[in-house]
UniProtKB/TrEMBL annotation:
It comes from Cobetia amphilecti. GO terms for molecular function: glycosyltransferase activity. Gene3D superfamilies: Glycogen Phosphorylase B. Signal peptide: none annotated. It comes from the Bacteria. Residues 227-251 are annotated as: Disordered. This is Glycosyltransferase family 4 protein. Pfam families: Glyco_trans_4_4 (PF13579). Residues 20-171 form the Glycosyltransferase subfamily 4-like N-terminal domain.
Length: 265
């Protein structure tokens, strides 16, 4: 089976339902032989301890939405995963904005572990702005994965995305093992690869990169797989990797594009 590099994104700063599901998905995809980057804003000890062997932890190390989108855009441009699956409303919106800025247009799959309505209620006074951003960004998602038909209806209503691109696929891991079932895993993998193929993304082999394994808090300090606040990955690469890097937009260009995008929103 061909190896693909895939990226999963969560922005939660604590162990949430989204984080647990992405940890389980990352473990399953890695077990199948794929290269998986789990991207987080800031890693915490519980997340690091739950990281499966072979999953690379990519820490954006940022504190604002602007710097987070900039760092994510640079990651996508440099490493070109065949698909990016984000989980949670904030992560989904950041991923879709980064995709717009990324010249390679990596396909984004937006995932909701809870209903969009639940996330909007939790957002309080920010809900109106989030609804507007959903309506603008969600039509650019390759797919939207939801845990229930109710969540799917809400995603279609709030995001203005057609029913054909909203898929109900519960990703709750087993309570005892913390793992996804084979059925869940293979269904999700099929959807991710289909999205990558449909949008013409080119899978990028990362042989030669150092792969950090989860399972210990010390792994983060030893790993070279973290992003600094400028969004530049710090790790050793072969000359072939360097030659395959995508052209990067300058910080000034990215900030200008973000400013223009924000004005339109």
């Amino acid at each position: 089976m061909k190896t693909h590099r895939m990226a999963l994104l969560v922005v939660a700063r604590q162990m949430t339902l989204e984080t647990r599901q992405m940890l389980a998905l990352a473990a399953g995809l890695t077990r199948l032989g794929h290269e998986v980057d789990l991207i987080v804003s800031q890693a915490h000890e519980e997340l690091i301890e739950g990281l499966a062997h072979g999953v690379r932890l990519v820490e954006l190390g940022v504190h604002t939405e602007l710097t987070g989108v900039l760092a994510l855009t640079r990651y996508l441009a440099r490493h070109r995963p065949c698909v990016l699956l984000s989980s949670g409303l904030e992560a989904n919106l950041n991923a879709l904005k980064a995709r717009r800025l990324d010249r390679w247009r990596v396909p984004v799959i937006a995932h909701h572990a809870v209903t969009p309505a639940t996330e909007l209620v939790a957002a309080g006074s920010k809900a109106r702005g989030l609804r507007r951003r959903m309506a603008l960004k969600y039509p650019h998602a390759a797919l939207v994965l939801v845990e229930s038909d109710e969540a799917g209806c809400q995603a279609r209503h709030e995001g203005g995305i057609e029913a054909a691109r909203v898929v109900t696929l519960p990703l709750a891991p087993d309570e005892e093992t913390g793992a996804l079932s084979e059925h869940q895993l293979m269904q999700c993998l099929s959807l991710m690869l289909s999205a990558a193929e449909a949008e013409g993304a080119s899978p990028f082999s990362s042989q030669g990169w150092q792969v950090s394994s989860g399972g210990a808090a010390a792994g983060l300090a030893q790993s070279s797989s973290t992003l600094d606040t400028s969004g530049v990955v710090s790790r050793q690469a072969t000359s072939a990797d360097t030659g395959a890097s995508a052209p990067l937009m300058s910080s000034a260009s990215l900030q200008a594009e973000l400013a223009n995008s924000g004005a339109r929103e």
